Amino acid sequence: MPMIHGPLPTDLTRDTGSVEEATDLAGLLSVLADPTRLAILQHLRGGEHRVGELSEHLGLAQSTVSQHLGLLRDAGLISTHTHGRARVSCLEHEDLLTSVLVTARALLASASAAAPDAEHTP
Fold first, then answer.
1. What confidence score (pLDDT) does residue 10 get?
2. 9 vs 6: CA distance, rounded Å
3. Residues 6+ apart with CB under 8 A from 61
4. Contact status, residue 48 vs residue 86, Cβ threshold 8 Å
5. What range(s) does the HTH arsR-type domain occupy (predicted)?
6. What gap in Å lies between CA 51 and CA 113, rounded to an integer?
7. pLDDT of the residue at 115
8. Cβ pair 41, 101 in contact under 8 A
9. 3-class SS of residue 91
């Protein structure tokens, strides 16, 4: 049975602004969608780190970690500063980022629990 509804108060006939906003949000979510970048963010939740430390923690080449840090920095999720002779990275907006990660985990758990078991589907 098709769902029928009239225009809702928030429905607009020409809503190009929502596409632009969705594009910006999709860009940020694509930065967050990489497992390596999520692991870096998790490590930075524990405090600032040098590239070498992150490389050691994650078992990745420093050049790889540096590339991911650059993307996170460009997205405004981290900042980098010098501490003595070392450059260190730290989280920006830690409380908001933590909320996003906690919410994403809860959504994943909820969606996984609601999904039909793959073995029982025809």
1. 63
2. 9
3. 55
4. no
5. 17-112
6. 37
7. 80
8. yes
9. strand
Hey, how many other C-beta atoms are within 10 angstroms of the C-beta on 69? Answer: 22
Across the chain, the runs of DSSP E, i.e. the strands, are: 49-50, 78-83, 86-91
Domains of the chain, residue spans: 29-109
Q: Determine how many CB atoms are found less than 10 A away from the CB of residue 72.
A: 23
Q: What is the dihedral of CA 21, 100, 41, 84, to 10 degrees?
A: 80
Coil/strand/helix, residue 8: coil
Is residue 92 exposed (0-12), middle (13-18) or buried (19+ Cβ within 10 Å)? middle
Query: Do the bridges between strand 86-91 and strand 78-83 make them parallel or antiparallel, or are there none, so unpaired?
Result: antiparallel
106: tokens are 């809860």
CATH topology for 29-109 is Arc Repressor Mutant, subunit A (1.10.10)
Question: E strands within 13-101?
Answer: 49-50, 78-83, 86-91
pLDDT lower than 70: segments of the chain: 1-14, 117-122
Mean pLDDT of the chain: 87
Structure token pair of residue 85: 């002779």
